[in-house]
Specification:
alpha/beta, 30% helix
């Protein structure tokens, strides 16, 4: 919901990494995540208020990372079903990051 369509511009902006990732679309994120959990996946949400820093997180199962928008974050229904709540440590009064920056950090920290 609210994400960019896959277009030549999106492919160019991703510098080709789009072809190295699985992109799944669904009508209802919560039901899709529950299906993944039933098949052994964990769900981790990025939440500025979470107690666990992403750099201290060691996944024990395949993990799906859910990022929210800069204004509202991840919805309460998704946070409630998540197995993990992770934060990115920030300094100098920074309160949140652009979702693209967050995605880049998640990709770097979890690779």
């Amino acid at each position: 919901k609210g994400s960019a369509e896959i277009s030549p511009l999106v492919i160019k902006a991703s510098s080709g990494t789009l072809f190295k990732s699985n992109i799944l679309r669904c009508e209802q994120l919560d039901s899709a995540l529950l299906d993944f959990q039933r098949h052994g996946y964990d769900v981790a949400v990025l939440d500025a208020e979470a107690d666990c820093d992403i750099d201290a997180f060691s996944p024990t199962a395949p993990t799906i990372y859910v990022l929210g928008n800069e204004t509202e974050g991840v919805s309460a229904s998704i946070v409630n079903l998540a197995d993990h709540r992770l934060s990115i440590p920030m300094q100098r009064g920074v309160e949140s990051l652009n979702v693209a920056v967050t995605a880049a950090l998640v990709a770097f920290m979890t690779s």
